[in-house]
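If you are new to this repository, start here. Below is one unmodified record pulled from the training split, so you can see the exact layout before writing a loader.
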Amino acid sequence: MNKIGFLEAITEVVYEAGEILKSAVAIEDSIEEKSGRANFVTAYDKKVQEFLFEKLAEVLPEAVFIGEEEEEHAALSEGYAFIIDPIDGTTNFMKGYNASCISVGLLKDGQPDIAVVYNPYLNEMYQAMAGQGAFCNGKQIKVSEHPLSEGLVLFGSAPYNEELAEKSFALAYQLFNKSLDIRRSGSAAFDLCNIAAGRAEFFFEMQLSPWDYAAGTLLVKEAGGLISDMDGMELVFDKKCSVMAGNADAMEVYRQLMEENKEENHEDTSERA
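And here is the target side for that same chain:
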């Protein structure tokens, strides 16, 4: 099977998994709480992940699997690895707030090679292959060309890490003052799709897991956008990190804002001394 064949086969599996979400019933009866604030898993998270693991193993038997609902994870540096979030936006799913995605990223030798993200509620299927562009429902997508002053900021509040909440909202307020408005969807995968599709200009979250952004990373890059951790370093896929993404203007506004914050903090420290 060639690369296009892999993309088509993965897309079909993800589409079928989306049908599981849309047909879900009695979700509230299957909720379990995981470690960390507001961190939940439902029987459907596990059901979708098991389905994806089984079907994707048929597509690419030599690949290893990394999924959110696993205790241990395989090495990523060599060969193929699927990084999967069965339901990105579990709290949304629990509440019937239809903003959840299935996210599947395929890494080759540690780098994103194929990405498929599906929002079954909007029937939006996002796809990307390294070097081949990014698409939504078969139509090529590009990041926005608007400056941040004419754009939207998307952010995640890192709800599982309470110590980051105040910093997250403080930065969101600063970026609100540099943009038209801010949005909080509850799904990092969906936010990255919206950056790739040009619907918003900047996204950040101070801590995410690889399954939240593995597929979205390739989508943003193939749509002509920039993505890194919040220190400007290349993203890694074997541990948690911060993530920011956007067009060139938005990333520059963020960089300037960080410089201004450093100068203010330095002045405050000097005055106290």
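Two things worth knowing about this chain: Residues 34-39 have pLDDT under 50 and may be disordered. The helical segments are 3-22, 43-59, 90-95, 165-176, 188-196, 210-222, 248-272.
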